[in-house]
Amino acid sequence: MSKDRPVPTMGAKDSPDAVYDARPLGVPKMGVFGLQHMFAMFGATVLVPALTGLSVSATLLFAGLGTLLFHFLAKGKVPAFLGSSFAFIAGYAAIAPNGEADLLPYACLGVACAGLLYLVLSALFRVFGAARVMRFFPPVVTGPIVICIGLILASSAITNASSNWLIAVVAIAVIVVCNIWGKGMVKIVPILLGVIVSYAVAAFAGEVDFSTVAAAPWVGLPVAWDNTVFSLFGESFDTGLAITAIITIMPLAFATMIEHIGDMSAISSTCNRNYIAEPGLHRTLLGDGLATIIASLFGAPANTTYGENTGVLALTKVFDPRVIRIAALFAIVFSFSPKFAALVAAMPACVVGGVSLVLYGMISAVGIRNLVENHVDFMKSRNVLITALILVLSLGIAYSAAGAIVVPVGGITISLSGLAVGSIVGILMNVVLPGHEEAVGAPREPEEMPDVPMPLEDIRPANG
């Protein structure tokens, strides 16, 4: 057995066919396993730039680089892949609703600042331990926030799908059939298959313009200066818009940090290793946060650990992190092909809408599951009030005529999105209202982690 095996164990006996060191299998097989992981994350990862207007090439590049950085900071022990986070789509939509090229860098600035919260939480975990810090962010707060993220995005999915409902329904049907009745890799990549099949149907129906694909070169640089945050700083810098983007997007990090902790628990259970104890949440959060900051600064989406790849781990029982790093290298290679990026950008709105309907619904479903699995007691008035205000403020403001609360501060106008207001109010109410110390859902310390592995069907998608 490899000396690189993570310790301590979760307490469950290792599966006899589990592979913690894939090197004896040979480079070709390790390459195939790496490709498998890349395709597992592929559909969701490239869909985020397609929905937001960000660069597909930059997205792939920083998904790969972010994964490698994460592995370096996690001491190469955690077999996790970092792909595009869907949780921040609401933030991009609030700042650049139509994917405006001149506004997206401001949204990326907000996401980069949100990544700083990962570093703060990482330091708090290092100093105080997970249980003490997470009591300020129980499921009664994070669950409704995640629910609102999906519901706020729902209208854009309907708008896109309405351009051709037949093709949108094809995308939905393929995803549902593959996810429920699929076997092997088909069950692991339903989103990718939904995109491919509905894209092919759209092309056959004449809904796709391939002229940009034909004109795009095969090889090119994945990052353009005008798409980066660095391009903002100059005479045309809009201070008010920058502050608005930061205040609007930063609260989204609270939900994604909670998801990160859940992902680490899922990977630990799958691999029979306690990664929360070693290398520790402070290291994995640091890696996720820095990857998000760097990606955002260069015009790519925020990163997050991917549940699809956890599903691949459970399916293959190949737990060697080296395989994940090979997948990261493949993503980096694809990022240098503008023709591939143009192929993704040519995806018609109806395909995007059909896939988005499922994905956005999944985001809200994860929030509901967070409440259910943590047994949030709605017989308590405090829990009802916190949830009610988060939902009403987040959704009510988002769908109001103004779409935000506008606050003039000196000569600067700051717009607070519904999600930002709902998140701030929920967090404050959880602290102020009686019963805070009894809030459920604070994660247990590593030594209290369960001794049984998590079944495959309990691993949720983490592209939120």
How would a crystallographer describe the biggest sheet? Answer: 2 strands, antiparallel
* Strands in their spatial order, largest beta sheet: 1-2
- Percentage of residues assigned to helices: 55-70%
Mean pLDDT: 83
Q: Spell out the helices and strands N to C.
A: HHEHHHHHHHHHHHEHHHHHEEH
Please explain how this structure is put together.
The radius of gyration is 21 Å and the shape is globular. The longest helix has 26 residues, at 27-52. It has helices at 27-52, 56-73, 89-95, 104-128, 130-134, 139-161, 165-181, 185-188, 190-204, 211-215, 239-249, 252-271, 276-297, 307-316, 321-334, 338-345, 349-373, 381-398, 418-432, and strands spanning 82-84, 303-305, 404-409, 412-417. The relative contact order is 0.23. It contains 19 helices and four strands. The chain is mainly α. Residues 1-12 and 440-464 have low confidence and may be disordered. The strands form two sheets. Strands 1-2 form a two-stranded antiparallel sheet. Strands 3-4 form a two-stranded antiparallel sheet.
